[in-house]
Amino acid sequence: MATDPSIISFFQGQYIPLAEAKISVLTHGFGYGTGCFEGIRGYYNDEHEQVYLFRLPEHYDRLAQSARTLMMNLQYSPAELSEISLECIRRSNLRQDVYLRPMVYKSTPAIGVRLHDLEDDVVVIMVPFGNYIDIDRALKVGVSSWKRIDDNMIPARAKITGAYINSAFAKSEAQMNGFDEAIMLNSDGHVSEGSAENLFMYRKGVWVTPPVTENILEGITRDTVMTLLREELGQRVEERIIDRTELYAADELFLCGTGAQIAPVGSVDHRQLADGKIGPITAQVQRLYFEVVRGNVPRYAHWCTPVYTPASTLHRNGNGNGNGAAAGVALAETVIAPDPVVPRR
Fold first, then answer.
1. Fewer beta carbons within 10 angstroms: which end of the chain, N or C?
2. Which residues pair with 120 in a beta bridge?
3. Can 159 be counted among the known catalytic residues?
């Protein structure tokens, strides 16, 4: 998809085809992992003829937090980055599920380990995207021999690019050992999260998830799930420390994240949970989640940012540009210099 000229990215202050967004091999962020990123999903709703970006402001607020941790000068506000993201999809004219990967990185071509006295840049890339892992069956997971990074090593609450080698070690180990996914423990031996997902366990009538002090990413999907469990399904949810062997005694278990969405678990370390299938409450959470992210639950409409302005609104405000983009585009034009490469469609 990177060679598809219709897919537009935002790179070095301009909208350009994704295939043309390239950095030097000397870029500090490439050599040392000095970057941070977000993963943002957009869901297409056929009935609405709309792409909804899920919890877009929260993702960019977290990106700004990660950038501060890495001593970065983020050149755009979360609101401006949100509009840039919408414009990338509009210019690409995508009418399907999409995945956005905005990144802030140390762009100086330099050798030398540090965070200070380096230039920073922003890129927003986007691709059509389906399921990251198989979520239509109960996964087999294994507890990894690799420990989760610690806040005083590489802060887990910041989505730092270089930190994901920790996840890569765990994921490859799990899959090469016959599992679908890994569960990582922290240095104290307590459950932290999956290789790139938060974890929820149902035991003795209570849903439990590790607290933010267990070196987890403070997940936006995690927060979403906690809200839906409590407010829509009437479930009790606790944040507390989880021991490894508690997982073996769980009635239900699932992993969640922007990429993984809601991923049911049927066994841990070759120990079957209940009947080994998708748990009944997990199935409810999964169904509800997909209704919410596709903009079908009015109560949570504020979580879903529409990409294309409805035709009725275009007629009313007169700001249409021919492909469904409207009022928000003007903001993008004031933030970013005119782009001779990619004309407005």
1. N
2. 106
3. yes
Alpha carbons 283 and 307: distance in angstroms, whole number: 29
Catalytic one of 140, 159, 171, 204: 159
What is the predicted pLDDT for the residue at 3? 65
What digits encode the pLDDT tens for the residues 249-296? Answer: 999 999 999 999 999 999 999 999 999 999 999 999 999 999 999 999
The span from the CA of 290 to the CA of 59, in Å, is 18
Judge contact between 249 and 206, C-beta under 8 A: no
Residue found under tokens 């997902």: 197
Q: What distance in Å separates the CA atoms of residue 45 and residue 54, rounded to the nearest whole number? A: 12
CA torsion 212-218-219-223 (nearest 10°) is 70
Say which residues have a Cβ less than 8 Å from residue 209's Cβ, sequence separation at least 6: 198, 199, 200, 201, 222, 226, 237, 238, 239
DSSP letter at 167?
A: H
User: 3-class SS at 290?
Assistant: helix
- Closest to 138 in 3D by CA, of 253, 299, 257, 27: 253
The Cα 146–Cα 178 span in angstroms is 16
Q: Which residues of the chain have pLDDT under 70?
A: 1-3, 132, 311-345
- Domains, the chain, in order of start with CATH, read 8-130+308-335 (3.30.470.10), 139-293 (3.20.10.10)
What is the predicted pLDDT for the residue at 325? 35
Q: What is the dihedral of CA 282, 285, 291, 293, to 10 degrees?
A: -110
pTM: 0.88
Q: Convert 116-145 to b/e letters by CB count within 10 Å (16 or more is b).
A: eebebbbbbbbbbbeebbebeebbbbbbbe
pLDDT one-digit tens code per residue, 306-342: 999 875 433 333 333 333 333 333 333 323 333 433 3
* Residue that is written with structure tokens 């979520």 in the block: 135
Q: What is the pLDDT of residue 135?
A: 87
